[in-house]
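Sequence and structure are kept together here, with a separate record for every protein. A complete record is shown below as an example:
=====
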Amino acid sequence: MMKDYYGELATIVYQLSKPIGTALNGDIDYYLERIQANSSKNQRVLEIGSGTGRALIPLLEEGVNIEGIEYSDEMLSLCRDELARRQLTTSLYQGDYMTCQFPHSFDTLIIPVATFNLITAHKGIQLFLEKCVSDLKKGGRIIFDIDLPFYPELGERQRSQYEWDSQKSISVEHEITKIDWLTQEIHHLYTYQLWKNQRLIDTQHQQLNIKWYGLTEIRLLLEQAGFKNVVISADYEYELAPSDSNQTITIEATKA
């Protein structure tokens, strides 16, 4: 069965490769720093695409009043288990961000790693940004990372193996199935195979489409949606201007 989100095996691999608290190039510390730059007491933060809680849980442990929304029930279930194990509580929402009605507005929305590129490929960036504006308080901020193209080759394949326990392992094959330079999208196909004692038990497929944006383009889109004071930073150094497409790019903007 083909899924366009993180299913059971994809969630297990994510947790094995990026356990709770794993920082990707220093992203968790950076997001904590930028959240704390807002001096508002008890500010409300929402992570869109909170997944297993890789970033949400350590931010919660640092005292951030953070909630999360995640489409994948498998990822959210793992996050809930981790919260219970650590005796932490927060509000988690399961479903499509575009249709979710929250009980309150937020001071800050965060979207670490390439989740922004993934969500907007499915939902359309303008509608997504307008929804973000509506969920923020006046003067609230959005902070997110974006991926830029990495010179992919059509048909390029990568294979990896993850040991689950002494009897089970999961093999992953990743293939680039489509590159559309006109719509600025790359389509990725992941095949997950669960093995037990060297016997194939299950196979699951995942299709992820990633959309990329130029820096001037994303600035204009944010301003058109109702944001101002757009700051583009590189390698998790606030206001460090990007100089290379291989750098981690983070965008921060304020609701007008």
Q: What stands out?
A: Residues 73-85 form the longest helix (13 residues).
